[in-house]
Write a structure and sequence with these properties.
Chain A: One of its GO terms (molecular function) is ATP binding. The complex is a heterotrimer. By secondary structure, chain A is α/β, with parallel strands linked by helices. Chain A is built from 18 helices and 22 strands. A six-stranded mixed sheet of chain A has the order 6-7-8-3-9-10, sandwiched between helices. In chain A, strand 17 (371-372) and strand 18 form a beta hairpin. Chain B has a single domain, classed as ABC transporter involved in vitamin B12 uptake, BtuC, CATH 1.10.3470. Chain B has a two-stranded antiparallel sheet with strand order 1-2. The model of chain B is unreliable at 1-22 and 336-340 (pLDDT under 50). The chains are: A alpha/beta, B mainly alpha, C mainly alpha. Chains in contact: A-B, A-C, B-C. The interface between A and B is large, with 49 and 42 residues.
Chain lengths: 517, 340, 321
C-alpha cells in the first residue's frame, strides 16, 4: 500500500499565548482516505492545533500546506469554504430552526424568483439524512431531535459542503452506543471517498475501532506519530501521560487506595426517585465512609440522580433521608442543610463563580453560618479559607485571586473547600476529575479517598472506567434512568462493569453490537 | 408533498427519535404561541361590536386601521430586531424625529419629505447596528442612548420643541397620509405592502434565514457561514428606516410634525411584537403575528375609549398587564417545550 | 492581521487604559468638569450653585443606587421612572394623612412594584428588561389613573425637606448620601450583598451552592422600587407638585448611565457604589455645564447619549480580558 496523498499538513507549528507556549514546533499531517487520531491529555495542545487548522487561531511560526499549496485561513469560515469542516463537541446548529434549514443554511436551493425553494429543500434534506440514519420530518425544529440525531445533522452538513478534511472533536461524547456505530459507518464511508478525517477522542476503544494513524501531543509538543496498529493501548497511554510502561502497570491508572472501612447504617438513603422521562424509581444507599460509584453511559441518568438527591431537580416522587431524617426534595438549600453537597459536572458554569475571589467562592455556601444578623464576619471567613487552602493545597497567588484565573484542578479544590466548610455528611461528586491535568487529578483522587476515610459518604460519577472501578467500594449501574445492576466486593472490576452496562444495553437494543468495550 | 416522517421511518433509521413522545403537546403549544393573539383579537372584537354600537361602524374601523398603520410599520422593524435576539428602544424617538424632518422637508417637495427622514433615521439605525454588531455593546443600552440622541436632534431642529412645522394639505405628500384608494386609507395600503414584503423576506430569502439563525444561536450561525455582524447591522438599520418612514407617514396624516406624540411608542411596538408570538429571546417569530399584536392593542385602546367613564390612562395599565400576561405565558410555554 | 486576531491580542497598554478608564475614569471626569467650571463658568463656586446642583442630583443618585443593585445581579430595572411617578401620585393622594404616611404609602407602592417585577424575574424567569418594561408601562398608567393631572403639593414639612439645608448642605443631599452609605454597606458587609454578587456573576453556580437565589433577586427589585419611591417623594417635595405624567421620564436612562459610567459592568457580579455616586454627579455636572454655557437641553441629551455609549464601550474592553 502506498502512502495516500497529503491533504493538510503543518510543519514546525508554534503558537504562544501570554505566559504559555501552547504548541511548540509541532508537525501534523492528514492524508486522504485516512482516519487520523489526535490524542493527548487536557492541555496537551490538541484544541489549539485544531483551532489553528480551522482558522480560529493564527500560528506564530510554522507553515500550513493544504492540497499541496501553502495556505493560511483567516477565519473559520475561510477554512470551511476551502473544504475543511469541523464537528464540534457541542452541536453547533440553530435549535429553533427546522432540520432542513439547518442543513441547507446559506446554500438553500432557490426558485426562479430567487426565493428559497422549500419543496426541493425538504426532499433533498430527507434524502441526505436517510444516509446518516436519521429519519425525521425535516420541517420540525432541530431541537426536537435527540442529541445523537442533531450530531448527525451537523455531520451531514459538514460533509455536504464538499469537504476534503473533516475534523471531529470528541464527536461521541454525547452519543448512544448505537449512534456511535452509525457514526463509524459514516466515517468509513468518508474514508472510502478519500476524505481525510481527524478524530479527537479520549476513548481508547473508539480509537482502535476506527482510526488508521495516531498523533500524540503532550505539553504542546509532538511525542509520537505513526500508524495506530504499531502502537498498543498501554504504549499509547504511557505516551500520553509521559509515564513509563512499568510505572503505569505497577501503580494502576489512578491514585485510589482501594476499599474503605464503612459504617453499617446508611448515611444517605434515596428511595424511589422518579422524574418524568428522566428517572424511574431509583433507590440507593450510601454508608458513612463508603464510596459508591454510579456507573452507566452518558445519558443514563447519573447526573440527574445526583442532582435530584442534591435538590437541584424537582422530583415527581421519591424520598431522600440523611442519617434517618427526611430531606425536602427539590430544594438545594434544604439538601445542603441536611448535609448533602454536590460537586457539579459542569464546573465552569455551575460550580465556580468565576468573577469572585477564591475566598468568596470558598465562603459562598457557608455565608449564613459565618454571619450574624445578616452581617458577614470577615474573621470567621479568613479562618475557614486559610484552613482549607492549606489542607487542600490550593495553588493561587492568594485568597483574593479570581477563581476564573485558576487551573481546572485548583478550581475543583476550591469547590471541594466550599463544601467541606459546610461539614457535609454526603458528598456527591459528578465527574470530579474531568478536564483537569494529570497531577491535579491524582491529588483530587487522593482527597476523595481521605474524605471517605474521615467518614463521609461519597457518591462518585465518572466516565473514566478505571477511576470508577478503583475509586468505588460498590457500583450502582444505571440505564435509561433506572437501576439495572449493582456490583459489590470482588465484582467491582472493569470487566463486570462493562458487562453490566452491555447486558443492560443489549436488553433494549435490537442490535448486538451495542457496546464496543 | 414532501416526504414525511412516516415515509422515512420505513427505512428503519438507526438514530432513534426520542422527541416524539410530547410532539402532540408540542404542536398545541406552538399553535397557542402562534395564534393565541389572533384568537384574542377575534374574541375581543366580537364582544366589542356586540357591546358598543359605535365599534363596528365604518368610520371607527377606518380610524382604527389608519392609526394602527403607523405603529404596525414600527413593529415590523421591531420584529426583525427581536428575532435576532435584540431590542430597539430608540424607535419612539426616531418616529418623532422622522415626522418632524418630513414636515420640515415637505416644503421642498415630496421627495425631500420622504428621503430626509429615511436618510437621517436610517443613519441612526446604522450607527445602532454598528455599535451593537461590530463593537458588541448591549442592544438595550445602545438604543436607549440613541433614543436620547434622536430626541436631542429633534429638539434642536424645532427650537427646543417650540416650533411645529406644518405640511401643506394640498401637497402630494399630504395625500400619502390622508388620501384614499378604493375607499381605504393610503397608509393602510402602504402598511399592507410592507408587511407582505417583510413576510416574504423573512421566510423566503437568505437574509431572513440569517435573521433567524443569528437569534437562534449566534456562534453556530457564524460557523455556518451567516454574516452575523452584517445581519445585525441591517436589522437595526431597517428598524430605524421603518420607524422614520412611519413618522413621516404620520406627519403626512396629521399634516404637521408633532413634537410630542410618539414618545413611548417603542413600548407599544415591543408589546405588539411579543403579543404576536415572537420570542423575546430571539430565533422565533413572524411578521403576521406582530400585525395581529398591533391590531389587538388598538382594539383594546378603542374599547377603553368607548367606555366613556374610563380614563385613557387605563390604556397603559392594560398594555402593561397584557405584556406581563403574554410574557408569562411565553416563558411558561417555552419552558414546557424544553422539558418535554 | 485580521479583525479576529486583533481582537484576541489587544495590546496590553490599551487594555490597561480601558480598565483604568472603567475604574477611575468617572472620578477623572468629575474632576475635569469641576476644574473646567471653576475656571470658565461664572458664579460656579458659590454656596447657592452648590445647593442647586446637590438638590438636583439627589433623586437621580437615589434611583441609581437601586439600579446598581439590579445591574449587579445581572438585571436592570427600567421601571424606576414610572415608580417615581406612581410614588408622587400616592404622595398626593395620602398627603391628607400627613407627609410621613404619604411617604410610607409611596414606599409601599414602590416595593409592591419591585415585588411584582422581582417575582416575574425570579419565579417565572422573565428577562429583567421585559419584566420591568411591562411595569414601566403599567405604573405610569396607574399613576395617571390615581392622579390625572398635575397638582400642587402644599405641606410645610415637605417644603422644608425639599428646599431646606443644614450648614448649607441641603437635606436632599444628606438623605442621598446616607442612602448611598447604607447601600454600600449592604453590598460590602451583608450576606445579602455577597449573595447578590455571586448570583450576578453566575446564577447556576449560586443556585447549586444553595443560595436563596429567588429571594435575593426579589429583594433586589424591592430595594430598587423602594429607592425609586423615596426619590419620587423627595422630587415631589422639591418641586412642591405632583406631576404623574412627566416626573421620572427618562430617569431609568440617567440612572443606568450613572451606574455604568461608575464602573459597574452590565454583565453583573460587581457593584460600585462610590463610582455610581460619582457617575450621578458627572451627569449632573455635564448638564449644568452645558446649560450654564447657554447650550440647549437638546445638546445635553445628545451629550448624555455619547457619554453612555463611551462608558459601555470602555466596559466592553474589560470583558474581553
Amino acid at each position: 500500500m502506498t502512502a495516500p496523498a497529503e491533504v493538510l499538513a503543518v510543519r514546525g507549528l508554534t503558537k504562544r499565548f501570554p505566559g504559555v507556549l501552547a504548541l511548540d514546533s509541532v508537525d501534523f499531517t492528514a492524508r486522504a482516505g485516512e482516519v487520523h487520531a489526535l490524542v493527548g491529555e487536557n492541555g496537551a495542545g490538541k484544541s489549539t492545533l485544531i483551532k489553528v487548522l480551522t482558522g480560529v487561531y493564527h500560528p506564530d511560526e510554522g507553515d500550513l500546506t493544504y492540497r499541496g499549496e501553502p495556505a493560511a485561513f483567516a477565519t473559520p469560515l475561510a477554512a470551511q469554504a476551502a473544504g475543511i469542516s469541523t464537528i464540534y463537541q457541542e452541536v453547533n446548529l440553530i435549535p429553533l430552526m427546522s432540520v432542513a434549514r439547518n442543513l441547507f443554511m446559506d446554500r438553500e436551493p432557490k426558485n426562479r424568483l430567487g426565493l428559497i425553494d422549500f419543496r426541493r429543500m425538504h426532499t433533498e434534506a430527507t434524502r441526505i439524512l436517510r444516509d446518516y440514519g436519521v429519519g425525521v420530518d425535516v420541517r420540525r425544529p432541530l431541537r426536537d431531535l435527540g442529541v445523537g440525531a442533531q450530531q448527525m445533522v451537523a455531520l451531514a452538513r459538514a460533509v455536504s459542503v464538499d469537504a476534503r478534511v473533516v475534523i471531529m472533536d470528541e464527536p461521541t461524547s454525547s452519543l448512544e452506543p448505537r449512534e456511535v456505530q452509525t457514526l463509524f459507518g459514516v466515517i468509513r464511508r468518508l474514508r472510502e471517498q478519500g476524505i481525510a478525517v481527524v478524530y479527537v477522542s479520549h476513548r481508547m476503544e473508539e480509537l482502535y475501532a476506527i482510526c488508521d494513524a495516531v498523533t500524540v501531543l503532550r505539553d504542546g509538543r509532538l511525542v509520537h506519530t505513526g500508524p495506530l496498529a504499531d502502537t498498543d493501548r498501554l504504549t499509547l497511554v504511557s505516551l500520553m501521560l509521559g509515564r513509563e510502561l512499568g510505572e503505569v502497570r505497577a501503580e494502576g491508572m489512578t491514585k485510589f487506595t482501594g476499599d474503605h472501612e464503612t459504617g453499617t447504617e446508611p448515611v444517605l438513603r434515596a428511595e424511589h426517585l422518579t422524574r418524568r422521562h428522566e428517572l424511574h424509581d431509583i433507590s440507593l444507599t450510601i454508608r458513612p465512609g463508603e464510596v459508591v460509584g454510579l456507573g452507566g453511559l452518558l445519558g443514563s441518568g447519573r447526573t440527574e440522580t445526583a442532582k435530584a438527591i442534591a435538590g437541584a431537580l424537582p422530583l415527581g416522587s421519591g424520598k431522600v433521608t440523611v442519617a434517618g431524617a427526611p430531606v425536602r426534595t427539590g430544594s438545594t438549600p434544604a439538601a445542603i442543610r441536611a448535609g448533602i453537597s454536590l460537586l457539579p459536572e459542569d464546573r465552569k458554569s455551575e460550580g465556580i463563580v468565576p468573577g469572585l475571589s477564591v475566598r468568596e467562592n470558598i465562603a459562598l455556601a457557608a455565608l449564613p453560618q459565618m454571619s450574624r444578623f445578616g452581617l458577614v464576619s470577615e474573621a470567621a471567613i479568613d479562618k475557614v479559607v486559610e484552613t482549607f487552602m492549606k489542607r487542600l493545597q490550593i495553588k493561587a497567588s492568594g485568597p483574593h485571586q479570581k477563581v476564573g484565573e485558576l487551573s481546572g484542578g485548583n478550581q475543583q479544590k476550591v469547590l471541594l473547600a466550599r463544601w467541606l466548610a459546610m461539614q457535609p455528611k454526603v458528598l456527591l461528586l459528578d465527574e470530579p476529575t474531568r478536564g483537569i491535568d494529570v497531577g491535579a487529578k491524582a491529588e483530587v483522587q487522593k482527597l476523595i479517598d481521605e474524605l471517605a476515610e474521615d467518614g463521609l459518604g461519597v457518591l462518585l460519577i465518572s466516565s473514566d472506567v478505571e477511576e470508577l472501578i478503583e475509586g468505588s467500594d460498590r457500583v450502582v449501574v444505571l440505564r435509561d434512568g433506572a437501576v439495572v445492576g449493582e456490583l459489590t466486593g470482588d465484582d467491582v472490576t472493569e470487566d463486570r462493569l462493562l458487562q453490566a452496562i452491555a447486558a443492560a444495553a443489549e436488553e433494549a437494543a435490537d442490535t448486538t453490537e451495542a457496546v464496543t468495550p | 408533498m414532501t416526504v414525511s416522517y412516516e415515509d422515512a421511518v420505513v427505512d428503519k433509521p438507526t438514530v432513534e427519535e426520542p422527541g416524539e413522545r410530547g410532539s402532540r403537546r408540542d404542536r398545541l403549544t406552538a399553535l397557542a404561541q402562534q395564534h393565541g393573539a389572533l384568537v384574542a383579537l377575534v374574541v375581543i372584537a366580537a364582544i366589542a361590536s356586540l357591546s358598543f354600537d359605535s365599534f363596528a361602524t365604518g368610520g371607527n374601523i377606518e380610524n382604527m386601521a389608519v392609526s394602527s398603520a403607523f405603529l404596525a410599520v414600527v413593529a415590523l422593524g421591531m420584529t426583525f430586531v427581536i428575532i435576532t435576539g435584540g431590542i430597539d428602544l430608540s424607535v419612539g424617538s426616531v418616529f418623532v424625529l422622522g415626522g418632524v424632518l418630513a414636515a420640515w422637508g415637505s416644503r421642498y417637495g415630496t421627495v425631500v419629505a420622504l428621503l430626509l427622514p429615511l436618510a437621517v433615521c436610517g443613519l441612526i439605525g446604522l450607527i445602532n447596528g454598528l455599535l451593537i454588531a461590530r463593537s458588541r455593546l448591549a442592544p438595550f443600552i445602545v438604543t436607549l442612548a440613541a433614543m436620547l440622541a434622536a430626541r436631542g436632534i429633534m429638539l434642536s431642529i424645532t427650537d427646543e420643541g417650540a416650533q411645529t412645522y406644518l405640511v401643506d394639505k394640498k401637497s402630494f405628500f399630504a395625500d400619502l397620509g390622508q388620501g384614499k384608494l378604493l375607499g381605504i386609507g393610503v397608509p393602510v395600503w402602504i402598511t399592507a405592502v410592507l408587511f407582505i414584503t417583510g413576510a416574504v423576506v423573512l421566510r423566503r430569502s437568505r437574509f431572513g434565514q440569517h435573521v433567524y439563525a443569528v437569534g437562534g444561536n449566534e456562534d453556530a450561525a457564524a460557523l455556518m457561514g451567516a454574516p452575523v455582524a452584517r445581519t445585525k447591522t441591517l436589522v437595526y438599520t431597517l428598524s430605524g428606516l421603518l420607524a422614520g418612514f412611519a413618522g413621516a407617514l404620520n406627519a403626512a396624516w396629521l399634516a404637521s410634525g408633532v413634537t410630542i406624540l410618539g414618545f413611548g411608542m417603542e413600548l407599544d411596538a415591543i408589546a405588539a411584537v411579543v403579543i404576536g408570538g415572537t420570542l423575546l429571546s430571539g430565533g422565533l417569530g413572524f411578521v403576521s403575528g406582530s400585525l395581529v399584536g398591533v391590531l389587538l392593542l388598538k382594539v383594546i385602546q378603542n374599547v377603553i375609549n368607548q367606555i366613556g367613564s374610563l380614563d385613557s390612562a387605563y390604556q397603559q395599565v392594560v398594555s402593561g398587564a397584557f405584556l406581563v400576561v403574554v410574557v408569562i405565558a411565553q416563558t411558561w410555554l417555552g419552558r414546557r417545550r424544553q422539558v418535554l | 492581521m485580521t479583525d479576529l486576531a486583533l481582537g484576541k491580542s489587544l495590546p496590553a497598554d490599551r487594555a490597561q487604559l480601558m480598565r483604568w478608564l472603567q475604574d477611575y475614569g468617572v472620578y477623572a471626569g468629575v474632576t475635569a468638569l469641576l476644574l473646567f467650571n471653576v475656571v470658565f463658568t461664572e458664579n460656579f463656586v458659590s454656596g447657592e450653585n452648590f445647593r442647586t446642583q446637590a438638590v438636583q442630583v439627589a433623586p437621580v443618585l437615589i434611583v441609581a443606587l437601586g439600579m446598581a443593585l439590579a445591574i449587579g445581579s445581572e438585571g436592570v430595572d427600567l421601571s424606576v421612572g414610572s415608580v417615581m411617578a406612581l410614588a408622587t401620585s400616592l404622595v398626593s393622594l395620602y398627603l391628607g394623612y400627613g407627609p410621613w404616611l404619604a411617604l410610607i404609602a409611596a414606599i409601599i407602592g414602590g416595593m409592591v412594584c419591585g415585588l411584582l417585577s422581582g417575582s416575574l424575574i425570579a419565579y417565572i424567569g422573565v428577562q429583567p428588561i421585559v419584566a420591568t418594561l411591562a411595569l414601566m408601562v403599567g405604573c405610569r398608567g396607574l399613576a395617571n389613573v390615581f392622579l390625572p393631572q398635575l397638582e400642587t403639593v402644599r405641606d410645610d414639612t415637605m417644603a422644608t425637606l425639599g428646599t431646606g439645608d443644614i450648614l448649607g448642605i441641603p437635606y436632599l443631599a444628606l438623605i442621598a448620601a446616607a442612602l448611598a452609605a447604607l447601600v454600600a454597606f449592604t453590598v460590602k458587609r451583608t450576606t445579602f450583598g455577597r449573595q447578590l454578587l455571586a448570583i450576578g456573576d453566575s446564577r447556576p453556580a449560586a443556585q447549586l451552592a444553595g443560595l436563596p437565589v429567588r429571594r435575593v433577586l426579589i429583594m433586589v427589585y424591592v430595594c430598587s422600587g423602594a429607592l425609586a419611591a423615596i426619590a419620587g417623594f423627595l422630587a415631589t417635595a422639591r418641586l412642591q407638585a405632583s406631576d404623574p405624567t412627566s416626573l421620572g421620564n427618562l430617569m431609568e436612562l440617567s440612572a443606568i448611565t450613572a451606574v455604568v459610567v461608575g464602573g459597574t459592568p452590565l454583565s453583573g457580579g460587581r457593584v460600585r457604589i462610590g463610582g455610581t455616586v460619582a457617575g450621578a454627579i458627572l451627569i449632573q455636572l455635564l448638564t449644568a455645564t452645558l446649560i450654564k454655557h447657554d447650550l440647549p437641553s437638546s445638546a445635553t441629551q445628545i451629550a448624555q447619549a455619547v457619554v453612555i455609549v463611551l462608558a459601555v464601550y470602555a466596559a466592553r474592553e474589560r470583558g474581553k480580558q
